[in-house]
Write a structure and sequence with these properties.
The protein is mainly beta and about 110 residues long. It is built from no helices and 8 strands.
Length: about 110
């Protein structure tokens, strides 16, 4: 997965959302209207894995994980060209999987 600015679409059975993410090396940062994301991502042969620390910055917006304000997402998936698909889970909400689609918008 190349470094750059990515559009992010995500959903769980509880809701959907969108945001942006910047990847530079193994570091990733981004956010949406309610949460800021900070973490790392590794890539090997098109396979991706990583972890995001997620923290609420707007209490008025709903979460796709229900009533949690701070949590860790562990994710894995694959990348091809300018797109990636990931599946993520958090110990804070067992049994709920987050589906993520990334599209590279530009390089950094």
């Amino acid at each position: 997965m190349q470094d750059g600015l990515y559009g992010v679409k995500f959903q769980t059975p509880l809701g959907a959302g969108a945001g942006v993410l910047v990847k530079q090396g193994e570091r990733v940062v981004g956010g949406d209207t309610a949460f800021a994301w900070d973490g790392h991502l590794t890539s090997s042969g098109g396979e991706l894995k990583g972890r995001l620390d997620v923290q609420r910055h707007d209490s008025g917006m709903p979460s796709v994980f229900g009533p949690v304000d701070t949590f860790v997402l562990d994710f894995k998936g694959s990348a091809a060209g300018d797109k990636a698909t990931l599946q993520a889970t958090t110990p804070s909400v067992p049994g709920v999987t987050l589906s993520i689609a990334l599209t590279r918008l530009k390089g950094v």
